[in-house]
Design brief:
201 residues; 5-stranded mixed β-sheet; 8 helices; 14% strand; globular; binds zinc ion
């Protein structure tokens, strides 16, 4: 176990250095939903190619102009932080960028979360609290669990639970491409972590 450096630690989550140049170029073509997802899926692939995290990525876009507000990739292992899922990173950085804890605050444009995989139980809750107006997903829960990840105790009707609160959900956008990244990660023996550890019967 890594000893804590102090009894009063701080938490600093930072996107990998490789993302800066790539994001500044690729974010110029995000007009269609498929383009926005292709951008996010490419982030997931590059995250495992660079060894900077798990096979997941996400981003927040403005719904009116489709401008990228903030990208996110999975940083769990690298940052030693179990909540550092891609969706959490993207939503938190978007909130920092717009200067509000609420992406749906009055006077702001509506925002869209585009994610390479359907949200886990934790991210589902975080989406509700984030103020995002739409969620677009690529890989399904079953694609993640197939390689050993665990989405946690999520309601089976999570899509309607979000939609009942005014959050529009779109599934299966570039699912095949995102699922392939999960498979590639498993094939290269990437680290699999999940909420079942320590609780297996
Ligand atoms: Zn998650």
């Amino acid at each position: 176990m890594i000893p804590a450096p102090s009894l009063f630690p701080s938490l600093h989550l930072e996107l990998p250095a490789w993302m800066a140049d790539y994001v500044s170029k690729a974010s110029q073509w995000t007009t269609t939903r498929e383009q926005r997802m292709a951008f996010v899926v490419s982030l997931a692939r590059m995250n495992i190619q660079h060894g900077t995290g798990g096979p997941f990525a996400a981003a927040i876009f403005r719904l009116d102009t489709h401008e990228l507000v903030a990208p996110g990739v999975n940083l769990v292992v690298a940052s030693r932080c179990s909540v550092a899922h891609a969706e959490i990173i993207a939503m938190a950085l978007a909130q920092q960028r717009i200067g509000s804890h609420d992406l749906g605050a009055p006077g702001l444009p509506r925002h869209e979360l585009v994610t390479s995989c359907e949200p886990c139980a934790m991210c589902l809750g975080a989406i509700l609290w984030s103020g995002t107006g739409q969620v677009v997903c690529a890989a399904r829960d079953s694609d993640a669990t197939e390689i050993g990840f665990d989405e946690g105790p999520k309601p089976l009707d999570w899509v309607s639970a979000l939609q009942q609160r005014g959050i529009v959900v779109t599934q299966d956008v570039l699912r095949t491409e995102a699922r392939q990244i999960l498979q590639d990660y498993a094939n290269q023996n990437g680290i699999i972590y999940n909420s079942r550890q320590g609780f297996a019967p």
